[in-house]
Design a protein that fits this description.
The protein is an alpha/beta fold. The chain has one domain: TIM Barrel (Alpha-Beta Barrel), CATH 3.20.20. 47% of the residues lie in helices and 16% in strands. α4 packs parallel to α5 and α9 packs across α10. It is globular. The structure holds flavin-adenine dinucleotide (FAD). Flavin-adenine dinucleotide binds next to β3, β4, α4, α5 and β6.
Length: 276
């Protein structure tokens, strides 16, 4: 059997205290020997320097760091410069995205879709980077249709992506169906499920509304019933997400990518339960 791919995602911390806390979080998660740590990137410029700084730190600590790069609102020159900086830093892995411009912010720039960014990275840097792209088992909210979304995903893979990480979801069937449809389209690359631990219901509901990841009704109703009792929210979340991970791995998922929210405990708890 192939080695399973586990990875952890962070957002760039906003304060020195946040950065310090993240060093400790990384240390705890590094003990699980992940394939890489990735760091998100704010489209439209909001957090870009902090992404680069966090990547530099992760690299300096001796871990494999994978920056996210989004292209919406960007010019070719600035993406080229960033790729060169990452190459010089010894970065070998990139998560390539379109991104979403914050509302009211500028023009879409020189790239419209992620497949154009993937093609540009390959054109500029050949095979230097392992390129990850995003996949949507419950379909991207702006997709014209489910079929179109899969064909657009295929376009990204054909442009030179090596593997994909999915948006989070709580319905394992959506993932298995998506992977099956991709295989029918001749996409053979690993598609790693993105896992969102459940820490706070209000926050999760907000994320889910924005990105189109469904919280199934039975879960939403149960989580709502806990009100401010966060302990119960987390205990329920741990049960549900662990079972989801078990099903995914048993069903052939090539690994798991955790959206850590810059906290070690929720991911560690799932990991422990999984007995990995
Ligand atoms: P695309 O693949 O370009 O798809 C966007 C939409 O356009 C889809 O509806 C697709 O069907 C359609 N489409 C694609 N190509 C074409 C085409 N050629 N013609 C017509 N339609 C097309 N956002 C950030 O800002 N920063 C991050 O760090 C970040 N990290 C993420 C990590 C993961 C693993 C995931 C799943 C998402 C992440 N996002 C991040 C969110 C992501 O940027 C948004 O979901 C964004 O709306 C779409 O990005 P994409 O790369 O999937 O876009």
């Amino acid at each position: 059997m192939n080695r399973q791919l586990f990875s952890f995602e962070f957002f760039p911390p906003q304060t020195p205290e946040g950065a310090e806390k993240l060093v400790a979080v990384r240390k705890q998660l590094a003990a699980l020997h992940p394939e890489f740590f990735s760091v998100t990137f704010g489209a439209g410029g909001s957090t870009q320097d902090r992404t680069i700084e966090t990547i530099r730190q992760i690299k300096a600590e001796g871990y494999i760091a994978a920056p996210h790069i989004s292209c919406v609102g960007s010019r070719r020159d600035s993406i080229r410069a960033m790729l060169n900086d990452y190459k010089d830093m010894g970065i070998k892995r990139i998560v390539a995205l379109r991104g979403d411009l914050p509302s009211g912010m500028g023009s879409i720039g020189e790239f419209q879709y992620a497949n154009e960014l993937v093609a540009f990275i390959r054109e500029q840097t050949g095979d230097h980077f392992h390129i990850e792209v995003a996949a949507y088992p419950e379909f991207h909210p702006q997709a014209k249709s489910a079929r179109d979304d899969i064909l657009n995903f295929k376009r990204k893979m054909a442009a030179g992506a090596d593997s994909a990480i999915t948006q989070y979801f709580y319905n394992a069937d959506s993932y298995f169906y998506f992977v099956e449809e991709c295989r029918k389209q001749g996409i053979t690359a690993p598609i790693v499920p993105g896992i969102m631990p459940i820490v706070k219901f209000a926050q999760l509901a907000r994320f889910s509304d924005a990105c189109g990841a469904e919280i199934p009704r039975w879960m939403r109703k149960t989580l709502e019933s806990f009100g401010d009792d966060n302990e119960s929210v987390q205990a329920f979340g741990l049960d549900v997400v662990t079972q989801l991970c078990e099903r995914l791995l048993a069903g052939g998922a090539p690994g798991l990518h955790f959206y850590t929210l810059n906290q070690a405990a929720p991911t560690l708890a799932i990991w422990k339960r999984l007995g990995l």
